[in-house]
C-alpha cells in the first residue's frame, strides 16, 4: 500500500514539474489534508474526545504512509483527536504542531507561511474537504461522512497551476 501511495505522489509531482520550463520553475506548495483518526464516542457530552485504540493505530499508520515525505509544517486544530492524529507525523519530522483555526486557515498569512513548503493539515469531516476546495478555489470535494477517517487530499499549487488528488488509505 505504501508503495502505491508513493508511486501516486511521484506521478503527481512528475506531472507538475513536466509542465514547467527549466528556466522558470515556480515554487511548489504541497498540502496533505487528512481528517483526524477514530475518536472515542463513548461519552456523547465530551466535546473534546481522545482517539480510540483504532484511532491511535491509524495515526501511526499515517506517519508510516508519510515516512518518505519531509514536512515543513504540521497543522492541527486545537482538539485532542486532531493533535493526537498529527503527533506521530510531526514527531517523525522533528516538528512542533502548529495549531490553527479552520475558519481562518486559507488567509493571506497562512498562504505566505506555507508558500513553497510541504504541509500536513489535520482537520475534521466538515473542514478538511472544504479547505481543499478553498485552496483549489473550486467546489470539487463534498463533506465526508463522520465514519470516514481514510481520505487523503493532496493539493499542489504552483504559480501557474493547481491540482489535487484524493486517495483513500484504509
Automatic annotation (TrEMBL):
EC nos: 5.4.-.-
Protein name in UniProt: Phosphoglycerate mutase family protein
InterPro entries, per the entry: His_Pase_superF_clade-1, His_PPase_superfam
Pfam families (UniProt xref): His_Phos_1 (PF00300)
Domain of life: Bacteria
A GO molecular function held by the record: isomerase activity
Signal peptide: 1-18
Organism in which the protein naturally occurs: Winogradskyella marincola
Amino acid at each position: 500500500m505504501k508503495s502505491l501511495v508513493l508511486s501516486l505522489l511521484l506521478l503527481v509531482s512528475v506531472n507538475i514539474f513536466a509542465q514547467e520550463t527549466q528556466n522558470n520553475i515556480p515554487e511548489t506548495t504541497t498540502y496533505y489534508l487528512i481528517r483526524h483518526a477514530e475518536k472515542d464516542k463513548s461519552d456523547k457530552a465530551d466535546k473534546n474526545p481522545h482517539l480510540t485504540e483504532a484511532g491511535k493505530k491509524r495515526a501511526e499508520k499515517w506517519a508510516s504512509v508519510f515516512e518518505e515525505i519531509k514536512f515543513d509544517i504540521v497543522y492541527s486544530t486545537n482538539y485532542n483527536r486532531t493533535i493526537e492524529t498529527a503527533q506521530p507525523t510531526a514527531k517523525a519530522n522533528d516538528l512542533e504542531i502548529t495549531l490553527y483555526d479552520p475558519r481562518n486557515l486559507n488567509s493571506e498569512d497562512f498562504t505566505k507561511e506555507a508558500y513553497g513548503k510541504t504541509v500536513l493539515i489535520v482537520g475534521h469531516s466538515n473542514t478538511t474537504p472544504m479547505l481543499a476546495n478553498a485552496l483549489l478555489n473550486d467546489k470539487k470535494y463534498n463533506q465526508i461522512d463522520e465514519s470516514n477517517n481514510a481520505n487523503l487530499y493532496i493539493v499542489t499549487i504552483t504559480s501557474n497551476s493547481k491540482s489535487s488528488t484524493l486517495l483513500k488509505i484504509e
